Structures are given as C-alpha cells and as structure tokens.
Amino acid sequence: MKPAPFQYFAPTTLDQALDLLERYNYDAKPLAGGQSLVPAMNFRLARPGVLVDLNRVPDLAFVRPGSDGGLRIGAMTRQRQVERDPLVAERAPLIHETMPHIAHPQIRNRGTFGGSLAHADPAAELPAVLTALQGRFRLESKRGQRWLGADEFFVDFFTTALEPDELLVEIAVPPLPARTGWSFQEVARRHGDFAMAGLATLVTLDEQGRVQEARLVYLSVGDGPVTARQAAQVLQGQEPTEEAIQEAAEVAARQDVDPVSDIHASADYRRHLVKVLARRTLRVAVQRAKENGQG
Amino acid sequence: MNEHIAVTVTVNGQEYTRQVEPRMLLSDFLRHELDLTGTHVGCEHGVCGACTILLNGEPVRSCLLFAVQVQGQAITTVEGLASGPDPEDLHPLQQGFWEAHGLQCGFCTPGFLMTLVPFLEENPDPTEAEIREALSGNLCRCTGYQKIVEAVQLAAEKMRG
Ligand SMILES: Cc1cc2nc3c(=O)[nH]c(=O)nc-3n(C[C@H](O)[C@H](O)[C@H](O)COP(=O)(O)OP(=O)(O)OC[C@H]3O[C@@H](n4cnc5c(N)ncnc54)[C@H](O)[C@@H]3O)c2cc1C
Ligand code: FES
Ligand code: FES
After folding, report:
1. Last residue of one domain, picked from the residues B19, B49, B80
2. In a mutagenesis test of the B interface, which of A106, A108, A116, A121 is the best target, namely the one with the most B β-carbons within 10 Å?
C-alpha cells in the first residue's frame, strides 16, 4: 500500500524543527530513520498530516564523550554508526554488544538511535538497554528542555513521555562503575528478527567479589522494558555462584515477568526464555565484572 | 495537500530532476518516474529486501524512503552494476549468481545484489556464516539460499582475483 498524502518539511536546524512541531502539533510527526514510521504509513496505520524530516538537521547526529566519563549520543545518530563507533565500544560496551541484534544492516543504515527509543516498541532492544544503563533523555520543545530518566521516559506500549511538540535530542549514558560486567542476549527465530525475548544485564561486584548491584532488564515480555527487581534482590550481597544465578533465574521467570502469548511465542515459552537468558547473561556479566576488577 | 516538490538526484551516475508528491516512495520514483524497474517491490514494509538500493554507497530499503528525502544525493540501483550490455560486462557478483544458479525466478535478486556488493567490498574473504548473516535481511522464496551462498563465495573468489 501507499501512504496517505502529507505536507513535507525538511528543516535544517533544530530550532526550525521545533517551530514546525509547535505550529502543527498533533498533526505533525517527526521523521527520523523512517524504519518504523514509513511501514506504518505504507499500511496507513499512521496518517500524519505533516512530516517534519529530521535528516537534514546535522546537529542531532553525534557521539561525544560525556564529562562524567560516559557518553552523549545524538538522537539522529544512525544505528549503524553507533554500532561502529570506537568510543561507544569503549565506554558503553553493552550498547556496542547490542547493536548487531537490531534488525539488519540495511535497516540500521537508516534507523536512528533516538528513533528506536522514541518508538518504544516493547520488542526493541535499545529501550531495555538504556533502562539497564540508567540512561538520561534530553527532550526539547519551544517551551524549553527537560531531562528524564529511562523509567520516566518509557510510559507504556509504544508510548513515551514525549509531547507532540517535543523532540528527543540526545541521550546521556553514564559510565559503568568499577568491577561491572555486562551482557546482552536475545532469542529470535532468525538473525535480525524481532526477539521473542531478550535481556540486558549489568552486574557490579564489591571488593570482596559479592554482588553489589545487579540490573536485569527484559524486552519482548511486557508492555515495555521489564526490570527484574526480585531477581536482582536475590543476588544482592551474595557470592555470584552458579547456585545463586540459578535461583535468580527461577525468581525472574516466576515473579518478575508476566508475558503474554502472541503469534511469535507462547507465554510459557517466553517464561522459559526469561530463565535461560538470566542464566546466560548473568554468567557472562559476572565473568566480565571479575575481569574488570583485576584490570 | 498534494503539491509537488522538485527532486534532483543522481542515479547510476546520471542526474534526474522530477516533480513529485511528498508521499511518493523512492522505490516507486525509481520504477515509475525513471523507468528503472530493476528495483523490485515486494512488501513495502522493510521486510523482504527486494527494493534494496545503495544510497551514498550504503544499502538501504527504497520502500522506506520518500523520493523527496534523497534530494541532492547519489543512488546506485541494480542497473548500475554492469559496465556494459554484454555478459562479460556483468559485475563479478552478477556473474557469480549466473554461474552458481543463485536465482530462479529472480524477483529477489536485485535486492540480494545491492546488499551483497558493499558487503563483499568490505569483506573480501567472508566465511559462510558471515555470508548467511549478511543476507539475513533479504527473502528468497525459490532457492533455499544455498545457491546464493555459493554464488557469493564464487564472486568473492573472482573479486579477489
Ligand atoms: C524489517 C525490520 C526489522 C526491524 N527489526 C528491529 C529489531 O529487531 N529491533 C528493533 O529494535 N527495531 C527493529 N526495527 C525497527 C528499527 O530499529 C527502527 O529504525 C526504529 O524502531 C525506529 O527508528 P527510526 O529512526 O527508523 O525512526 P522512525 O521510524 O523515523 O520514527 C519512529 C517513531 O519515533 C518518532 N521519532 C523518531 N525520532 C524522534 C525524535 N528524535 N524525537 C521525537 N520523536 C521521534 C517518530 O515520529 C515515529 O513516531 C526493524 C525495522 C524493520 C523495517
Ligand atoms: S519492498 Fe522494500 S523491503 Fe520489501
Ligand atoms: S529467486 Fe525467486 S524469490 Fe529468490
């Protein structure tokens, strides 16, 4: 099918883009990589009257070091660019590890970092990863700017805190604490397909090698990123032994998630994947945390 | 609402200017405005890969771009691969597909070619696993992919010389 008619604007500065969004408000949609919006328009699931194309606003695409030792990533940075950026690999290895799981190279060549976050698909990788990393989101409109934590930014199924006149402009990723390990894994039918379940895990060990903090955030098992708080609690203060990992994985599957069945996977199978992914990512993250402790 | 916008774009080294509605997909622009029907359209939602073209050298889905977005940019379509009309002018990857039977109906082939040309330029000696991963974003209903993998291996050999 073909998209319904719309008015097209291609601003070249952020200010022009925000002016247009203020003027057209609910009628307008920002167009980033178009890898989710254009399919929706082709199917006429989305019929925006006005498209504000962000692809000619150069200031929105960047990867910069943050003064805190973390990273700043511009919303319009292509997913492929984030995947290949050495600074991302060094400062945010969890993001680096995740990028190849998003769709296919042809999609990542256009799809943007911020577009995936703004779209807030419960099956998308980046919302879970940025929640695990406690990323912060800078939103801007003609009314001003505000910073939101991931927990405030992601509201529901395909819903964020973004108002119609607002843009997501950049994401700040804090540095990883010492003795922290990470792992991202997912299970999909074919490489590049949306995952039936996925998990971003971070583990920080204390000086005695016990778990100081664990963060496990799932995708594709709820209405948005699902943080496994009970499982993290099980690990806290414990030696990260195989038994502790096993116990945390059981708790994650039993208490932290309430997946639904759809054409991609049954709820039972998803629950099984929740357990398997917890075990797999925790083992890797713990190992990496130990290596980081020695380094 | 359906005002037309002028778009100037370089396709396979040649410059074209057309007046189009903003909602015209790049895939339709190439096929209907420029008569470059080598770019195929399967699904129009980014899944099948048949419409893959190179935008400034990188493979992208032409069904997920509006023609007005590529103003001033450079595109390569499957028509731009061969250097002339004769069989020996075919790109080594096209030769590989021909010799290894990498196509049956051929509907998917332009998309595979446009995905794999930049892949081979970056990975002159890919493993089978790397090839399979590289073509995971393109669907073929005929070949079962095995012959496509062999075609890529053959092309890689040819391109390494
Ligand atoms: C075949 C296929 C497979 C895919 N597989 C995956 C996958 O496995 N995992 C995955 O995560 N994604 C997948 N995607 C989606 C892809 O990653 C998209 O690129 C991404 O979801 C949206 O990013 P975009 O830049 O293309 O945004 P767009 O499609 O341009 O926009 C998406 C939405 O966000 C809004 N928006 C975009 N940028 C901003 C901004 N800066 N401020 C405010 N609002 C904004 C738009 O208005 C729109 O509503 C797939 C897509 C396709 C076509
Ligand atoms: S027609 Fe573009 S991906 Fe299928
Ligand atoms: S050759 Fe027929 S779809 Fe691939």
Report:
1. B80
2. A106
